From TrEMBL:
KW Ribonucleoprotein (keyword) present: no
SMART domains on file: PH
Family matches, as Pfam families: PH (PF00169)
Lineage: Eukaryota, Metazoa, Ecdysozoa, Arthropoda, Hexapoda
Coiled coil (UniProt feature): none
Organism: Iphiclides podalirius
Domain of life: Eukaryota
SUPFAM superfamilies named among the record's database cross-references: PH domain-like (SSF50729)
Gene3D superfamilies in the record: Pleckstrin-homology domain (PH domain)/Phosphotyrosine-binding domain (PTB)
Protein name: PH domain-containing protein
Signal peptide annotation: none
Key words of the record: Lipid transport, Lipid-binding, Transport
Domain called PH: residue spans: 10-112
Keyword Transport among record annotations: yes
InterPro entries: Oxysterol-bd, PH-like_dom_sf, PH_domain
Amino acid sequence: MIKTAGLGSHRPLSGQLYKYTNVVKGWQQRWFAVDPETGVLSYYLFDGPGDTIQPGQPARGEAHLAAAVICPSDEDSRTFTINCASGDMLKIRATDARARQEWVNGLRAIAEIHTKAMGANPPLQPREQLAVHDAMASARQQLQATEISDAALARCIESSDSPFPHTDPDLLLLKATSAASMQCLLQCLGILHRQQQYATVSVSSKNFDNDH
């Protein structure tokens, strides 16, 4: 259940979500809370129903939402990502599609307000920026899928014995062309990412290493 509040109040947007962690390579239950006044998203260790967050309990991690990009994922109806201006990314899963939409809408609203408050020059146009950010997130996802396909192609060629050996010139040319194309796509996305960052002000984001 997501708890919402007016952005002018001091009560946070909060609720139970699942965060993907690199340590265990899986989804871990966390309690998330956003302070709309500071634009800081914090998450805490949470064991499920019956568990409570104690006053003064240290956050497991924090991220500033100013200039952050919040994007629904194409992989299912519950997952979304928060791409921070610092370059950090949080991959989060809600309980259902409706909860995801509520979180995405709430986080985007807070991020938009704090992005405007940064006084970026030239002034940001949130709706247009959001469309660009969504497109960039989609491009990143497509590129990840392409990387997987490229690696699979390379493994297939390297293990090929018949009817053509892996040293066949045409296969080697195919492998090299695929790798070169992949490298070109990565470089192009890197250039676009740097241009995107240039248009925003870098915001510090703190995350704890044991939860990545």
